[in-house]
């Protein structure tokens, strides 16, 4: 169980860490100042969640590592985030589409985790849920606005959806570890979250006048750590650089 | 400062102007709907927008290190700081808008080079210590100027300054804290900290602008209370405050002429290279091109987003109007 729990916590913390990192790349470059501020807010929320998830992961592991060690000193194959969140930002539409797909999954997950049998997990979920309810409301409204907006914004949002849709499926991938945690009442099966996700996605993307691709194909390899995309290595090269270049220094 | 070498314009005269000056001298706040001389309005627009532009462009040098911050906590602090600066830009654009200009107009004037931003943001951030040095020195210098501006005569500007100053002092403490960690750290970290001070010391002194003892513009702005202290006064105050802080860190201010004058109680120090300052203002600073290119790219790339949002808002309004008609 310990290994499964550790793996589960890494999956949570790595998703929020890597997505936060990607969003933070927008800082100073967003289409309007209000969006710049809002994106920074979301990046900050996700970073705070990362500190909680990876903090607990480190505690559960009991090997003397800290949340920072887990973030800064693991190599790509030890990361357990879904490939969706490591994908490059693309244009603002792609960033917001990725955000909406992740938020729509995230809010379903947290809604279930608040009643986890593990109180520490329930507490983190409760704190995160308040933030993520706002995230999904916001990303949904932007996806709707831009999908419904001008001819160009509509075309860009449809392209973003076509591009990202096959990366959303991995969020619901379910393995033996998930079953073990589900049996212990700690976490839901990711596959159980799909229906809620689909309902929200169908409603929002419908309001956005966008068409969900028909394919049922889903990329995978991130949450198992088996095969991340090439992008993760470059992201880590930046994120971990100071810690790698000056081992043992305190900052 | 964030607003450097702002030219003031005095175009009006007559009884209204006299009454206006009486209000200023009595310490009254001028509000957007009040009568004000055209020159006062014009000068304020220039000064407030230059300040706003500086906050926005100022996101870039520090944003440069968000993805490379050394710890999760440092990353969060830096991200929050850069976000604050965007917020400052926003309040200041709002303050400028009360004077009858739009944010879009001002943005375009920044992007095509008609309006300036502070010289300091044209310097590169090369190591993590630069993030410390900017918080400590640049936010520190900004506070010197902005604290008195909380008492400036124009109400919306003064109120924006009150909000901004609170956050700037946080930024300064956080910057100093980064420097402290590095100054107490490994040899490489100490070297980084010293190097950052070496590179940022004179550009920070330049932030206050050249001496304006003789400047008619400054005299006019001071009469209107949109400038409270002379550039030299503020620079002296900054040096007096900062040198002991550098000593406490065990760092050396890169100035062989620096000494405390026991009679005046003030530090004597070398002037920065003003020819470099003017080169930076004229577009020849180390990062002028990158900074303006980055802002232009953000604006141009964002055009379809802003257009799309507007189109959606129009459609929504039209749908609401149609359903209203249907209901009636
Ligand atoms: Fe600021
Ligand atoms: Fe600041």
Summarize the structure.
The complex is a heterodimer of chains A (251) and B (328). Chain A is an all-alpha fold and 251 residues long.
Structure description:
The complex is a heterodimer of chains A (251) and B (328). Chain A has helices at 2-24, 33-61, 67-73, 83-86, 92-113, 119-148, 151-168, 176-183, 194-207, 230-239, 241-245. Chain A is mainly alpha-helical. In chain A, helix 5 (92-113) crosses helix 7. The mean pLDDT of chain A is 97. In chain B, 67% of the residues lie in helices and 1% in strands. Chain B has 13 helices and two strands, in the order ααααααααααββααα. In chain B, helix 2 (38-57) runs antiparallel to helix 4 and helix 6 (128-149) runs antiparallel to helix 7. Chain B starts with 14 loop residues before the first helix and ends with a helix. Classes of the chains: A mainly alpha (251), B mainly alpha (328). At the A-B interface, helix 1, helix 2, helix 3, helix 6 and helix 7 of A face helix 3, helix 4, helix 7, helix 12 and helix 13 of B. Residues 85, 139, 168, 171 of chain B line the site of one fe (ii) ion.
Structural descriptors:
heterodimer, A: 251 residues, Ferritin, 11 helices, globular, B: 328 residues, mainly alpha, two-stranded antiparallel sheet, 13 helices, 2 strands, 67% helix, binds fe (ii) ion
